[in-house]
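ok trying this again, last paste got cut off
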Amino acid sequence: MQASAGAESSRSREEPSPKAQRKGSRKPGDKKPYVRKKRPPVRLSQKPNDIYINRKTEFAAQLARSHRLLDQGCSELNIHGLGVAIHRAINLALQLQETSSHDLEVATTTSTVELVDDLEPLDDETDYHTQTRPSSAIHIRLYKKAAPHAAAVGDETTAAPPKQKT
């Protein structure tokens, strides 16, 4: 059993591992032939009640914008987060639900979005390429709870008039 383990370890020193073969023959000191330029993600819609969360905008500004939209009469907010911003999107939705003067419900969906990167060559001999990569996304719908129906509470003005005797 010892002999087979020794033979296997000597083989791994001589031949590159299957993972190293997939990566190519670049050595750690070699320069990359490309520069990756990330394209901006495709936005689903550009409605006033859509809030796209990113890492660069301050959280307090995103929270203030959301509160302002709700106070101006917006009955529904759609919060979108992509990749690293998912945590911030969830945090924003929970903060709004907790601190808002309105009674808000939350509906959440997740998805995977294909992002496109442009690979620009560093030399004239190499061609331009594009590369796609998946990224997780979250879409949070915050909406105001419907007010209870007036007839259900016993409001006399909406009840049917009494029948008259004939």
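PB: full thing came through this time. Residues 40 and 115 are 8 Å apart (CA to CA).
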